[in-house]
Amino acid sequence: MLDENIDEIDGACHCGTVRFHVRLANGLRSARRCTCSYCRMRGAIAVSANLDDIKIVSGEAALTLYQFNTKTAKHYFCSVCGIYTHHQRRSNPQQYGVNVACLEGISPFDFSSVIVNDGVQHPSDGIVPGKSGRAGVLKFIAE
Fold first, then answer.
1. Distance between CA atoms of residues 79 and 53, nearest Å
2. Edge-to-edge strand order for the sheet containing 8-12?
3. Neighbours of 56 (CB within 10 A)
4. Model-level pTM?
5. What is the Cα–Cα distance from 124 to 78, expressed in whole angstroms?
6. What is the pLDDT of residue 81?
7. Which one has a higher pLDDT value, 60 or 135?
8. Domain covering 8-139, topology
C-alpha cells in the first residue's frame, strides 16, 4: 500500500548518476500529470517540492536543462540515461515537480488514480471561463 504521508525521500535517475534528497510539500498526495505537449509525451507523474527542499547529492553536472515555449518551466534530466528527474513549474515557479518514478521504492503504478491538470489551457495563460484547471483523472487498475 502506498504511504501518501512520506515527507522526505531519496531519489535517483535510472543510471544512478544523478542522486537527490527531497522534502515533499504534501507527501505523495500532490501527485499529478499534465496534458501540455511536453508532459503528454513524457508521461511522468510528478509530486511537489519547494525550491529549497530538493538537494542534489551527486551528479549535478550531469543534469541537463530543457525549456520550451515561454521558457518559464525548467525541465531537468540526466544527460547520461536521459531520465527526467524534476522540473521547476510554470504554474508555480516556487516549486519543483519531482518525477515519482525516480523516488526510492515508488512506482507510478502504485497510484490507483492521479489527477491530470489541463496544461493545454494553462492557468498562466489566463483564466478560461468554465474550466477548472483539471483535464481529468488517470486510473490504473491492476489485473
1. 22
2. 8-12, 19-23, 54-58
3. 17
4. 0.89
5. 27
6. 98
7. 60
8. 2.170.150
Question: What are residue 66's phi and psi, to 5 degrees?
Answer: -125, 130
Question: Does residue 54 contact residue 86 with C-beta atoms inside 8 Å?
Answer: yes
Q: What is the mean pLDDT of residues 87-111?
A: 95
35, amino acid identity = T
Question: How far is the C-alpha of 66 from the C-alpha of 71, rounded, in Å?
Answer: 9
H or E element at residue 138: strand 134-139
Q: Strand, coil or helix: what is 49? A: strand
Q: Which residue has the cell 515557479?
A: 93
The pLDDT assigned to 102 comes to 98
Q: Name 96's bridge partners.
A: 49, 88
pLDDT score of 87: 97
The pLDDT, as a whole number, for residue 122 is 59
CA dihedral 114, 120, 123, 125 (to 10 degrees): 170
What is the mean pLDDT of the segment spanning 56-71?
A: 96
Domains of the chain, by residue range, sit at 8-139
Could you tell me where the DSSP H helices lie in 1-143?
Answer: 37-42
Residues 6+ apart with CB under 8 A from 124: 70, 72, 90, 91
